[in-house]
Amino acid sequence: MRNSNKRNHLLLLYKNIIENLPFIDEKGEKKELANTFICPICLKSFDISDYDNITIEHVPPEKLGGRPLLLTCKDCNNICGSSLDVHLINGIKNSLSLRNFTSKAHKATLNVDNMSINADATLRNDGELLFFIDEKRNNPQTISSIKEGLGTNITFDRISANISISEQKSNSRSAAIAILKSAYLLAFYHLGYKYILHSNLDCIRKQILFPEEDIFPGKYILSNERYMPENLSDGIYLISLNGTNLYGVILSFKTKGYDFTHRSLVALPHPEDKDGSIYVKEMREIEKSTPIISIKARLSVKNSTICGLQNLP
Ligand SMILES: [Zn+2]
What we know:
Elements: H1 3-19, E1 36-38, E2 45-47, E3 54-59, E4 67-73, H2 74-99, E5 106-112, E6 115-123, E7 129-132, H3 140-149, E8 159-163, H4 172-191, H5 193-196, H6 202-209, E9 221-224, E10 235-241, E11 244-254, E12 261-268, H7 277-285, E13 293-298
Antiparallel strand pairs: 1-2, 3-4, 5-6, 5-8, 6-7, 9-12, 10-11, 10-13, 11-12
Helix pairs in contact: 2-4, 4-6
The chain binds zinc ion (ZN).
């Protein structure tokens, strides 16, 4: 589906859902919400004809294998992309390039006496480290000195090497909030406004919008791929954390060119936790001791497209 068709299709869905939402204004009257789009991240409303400010959102980010599932406002899309998602994308790429150290060549500098030689270093699976010296990347004089020296007086104790592994800028805190944002949006995609308009999700929206502030304590990412049950697909689950019911979102992040998927289980508040205090308390406890996590049920979602009007378990 072309992008503009996809957006029109999504806008129509939002229009039908939002018109039926029981919004009451300050005077206790039902708010008129025809032709309104409400951004799921900042909750600002826009006229659905305001094409410039309503954008397609990929969940997870497009560069991590995300699909165009829903709409957010342009500001949220841009700001979250540049302040959060980029850290997650770079962080995953960095960890993969370390994991794949043996599978590719790395830039290296060989130092022999006072000579500096540009080379590519490859670590073979048998543990042997090989250096390939490309003549084009070196001063011709250096190359002729190496050729003269080969087989005569170069000994290993006169050689040192620096191997650089390129790392892209990534802040782990921002990357974690980017995972939280993707989990929140996937929950919105499956459970709709009926779930996210609970005030207990205010703390999560605030944390996404103000990543530099510590809005709520920490370890909302309960598990990364190493501990993830393999038989569970991405989606929303009813989970128990130390005996307390929460919602858990499982989501996968894929990186092009790597045969590896990073998966996370993220905790979100249960709808019955009206003000979110139980959730915040659990998130605080979790930092003190190893939590007991069990997955109780997958939340069944009938029409898994922003179906905001079903009853939640
Ligand atoms: Zn927004």
